[in-house]
Amino acid sequence: MISVLTNSRPPRVCLQRFHPILLQPIPWRLFEQFNERAVILAGGTLTMPEINLGSSGREAVISLDRLGLDQIIIDDRTVRLGAMVRLVELASARALIPLHKAVASIGGPAIRNMATVGGNICARHPYGDLATLLLALDAQLTFSTTRGTEVVDLTAFYAAEDRPRRGRLILSVQFQLPAFQEVVFQKLGRRCVNTPSIVTVAARITRNSAGVVDRACVALGGVGDNPMRSYAAEEALIGKALDDESIGSAAQKAAAGIAPLTDSYASAWYRSRVIPIQVRRALSELQAVAT
Ligand SMILES: Cc1cc2nc3c(=O)[nH]c(=O)nc-3n(C[C@H](O)[C@H](O)[C@H](O)COP(=O)(O)OP(=O)(O)OC[C@H]3O[C@@H](n4cnc5c(N)ncnc54)[C@H](O)[C@@H]3O)c2cc1C
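That is the input. Now the predicted structure with flavin-adenine dinucleotide docked in place:
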């Protein structure tokens, strides 16, 4: 006899919801009370499906929507984005044109309407396209901790062995706005739009008056669990002119020390072959803009 299981409805979800309006001390009391059993809710594009399916394994939801973390502050060239700024708001800020290509590459309009900056920084593979650009911009995160606030480089945040999930609430991200000709963003996916990343490359290159690269920040997304810097590519550029030779060398070395992941979009083998091609394309685009 063949029996068919028809009752595959997800388990009923009964989560306690909290909407704190002050940073201290309420969220911290809640974190202490629920420990690992609470989930931070920002735009909810990743957390809500988990909650609705009952697969989050949590007992409480702490929403950030009333903490006033949705401000965009631009002071000269210093930009501070609150963690709850929605991607759609970045897309409509004229001063933030260097971010627009990265934002437009993320999901579709419905996702960009809800998704937040802080959520994209915390999103795991293959997501984090805006975060890849922020990494190339050498951004810093401001956290709320039990002791007050703490500022950490985004590079250090991603490099940490076990990226902290609990007890670290991102308040904002800050960076220097790059000039148009200094920054590039390239994303390769299986489709032109609304597609997760196979390989994303973001780079910020500055040159001195002699045209020699004095600062290079090359970030890769979609390849590992988090966005990551390609230090080998950066070293191949610093002290050189941005020409075919240095670009070729940076592209060739870009995947050094990086072990890409396999997922349903691309294999590790494919990603490792595409990294040099995408890095070359990105740097060549910068070269073309600057000359
Ligand atoms: C259909 C679909 C397509 C997508 N396409 C892309 C894409 O092309 N490119 C891309 O980069 N991403 C993509 N995403 C992911 C999307 O960018 C992220 O979902 C979004 O940025 C996460 O933001 P959120 O505000 O919705 O986060 P949430 O879902 O609310 O949270 C995500 C995670 O971040 C944590 N978190 C959020 N804010 C904070 C904070 N301030 N402090 C500490 N922890 C925090 C949450 O606890 C949770 O673990 C896609 C998602 C979906 C569902």
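The CA atoms of residues 38 and 220 lie 31 Å apart.
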